[in-house]
Request: fold
Amino acid sequence: MARKCVAEFLVYDTPERVAKAAAELFTRRAQEAATERGMARIAISGGTTPKRMFALLAAEPFISQVPWDKVYLYWVDERCVPPDDADSNYRSTNEQLLSKVPLAADHIFRMEGELDPQEAASKYEAALRNSFKLEGAQAPAFDLVLLGMGDDGHTASLFPHSDGINEMGRLVIANHVNNKNAWRITLTWPVINQGRNVVFLIEGEAKADRLHEVLMGDYDPERLPSQLIRPESGKLHLLLDAEAARRLPKLEMHGDAETGVLELTR
Reply:
């Protein structure tokens, strides 16, 4: 069942500005969580925009502003490949960020894509339960969850018409992607929706029509899994470039970005 949610979006003129805004958001949320709760638990995704954001975070002024000793880093999803594989989300993050910032090894929670998919999912769920000290049916509440969206409307590794769309009981699953004939490890959508701040990073003209469908079209999460992301906080954030946002409602200028709000009631 869809839940009521407000989508707030910021639109920047270039992908580079989106990455800078994402780095600023990462830094700000990490600082706030570290102050309020003594640690900042952040779940990240793969993709082009995160790569640009990681490169910025690994350099001044951000590297000195992030409280790295309080940051705990998790993954939203991972391909079932070894950590040194070119397709690995971990490898990309390690090259752009982890190898350059003072983040302790025991603050990094990698999904082990080299394992059997079911085993990898089970181990990651156990790691989350241990790290967050969860009991029973409790779910982790990440301080920040960074998501992308595919041209097909998928997010995390929740693909259209895949079994993972209907999973509500587990924290982490192995999800088979039929059109790719591949397995992925992914957080489930109820876990993502527990995040205190859930943010989509989306760019490119190829995403514009799909984003319009996700936000303004009929509610059909089997076809558009990104529609499942309706945070329990009642607020969804999107950082977009102008091309991705071209079919969204009229925006207003606010600083160096255009802003808009949509009420998602389906």
Remarks:
- The first strand starts at residue 5 and ends at 12.
- The chain has a mean pLDDT of 95.
